[in-house]
Write a structure and sequence with these properties.
Blueprint: H1 5-11, H2 40-61, H3 74-83
Helix pairs in contact: 2-3
Region (Disordered): 12-42
Length: 98
């Protein structure tokens, strides 16, 4: 078992006992955005909302079949990706086949 340095030191009586901080340290500085990035967050959010609407419309038109294991079939995943305008799987979205 690994202990934080301060705790191990206090247990060996080599210094004062640590005082735990339950609050996060205050944010003191932020990095400025690169030039031209002011509206990028809003644009990305609008694009994500638009793609979500396309997927919801496809689901309303033709619901997916739920497999016994609890997931949805690969063909339904591909159909929904096609409805959202994606031809390849997006990394991190659970699909491993192209």
């Amino acid at each position: 078992m690994e202990l934080p340095y301060e705790v191990a030191r206090a247990l060996r009586h080599e210094g004062a006992t640590p005082s735990p901080r339950l609050e996060a340290e205050p944010l003191t500085a932020t990095a400025p955005l690169p030039p031209g990035w002011e509206g990028e967050g809003g644009t990305a959010a609008a694009a994500a909302a638009w793609r979500a609407e396309l997927v919801l419309r496809a689901l309303a038109a033709q619901p997916v079949a739920i497999r016994k294991a609890g997931g949805i079939a690969v063909r339904d995943t591909r159909r929904l990706a096609k409805a959202a305008g994606r031809t390849r799987p997006t990394p991190g979205c659970g699909s491993t086949s192209p």
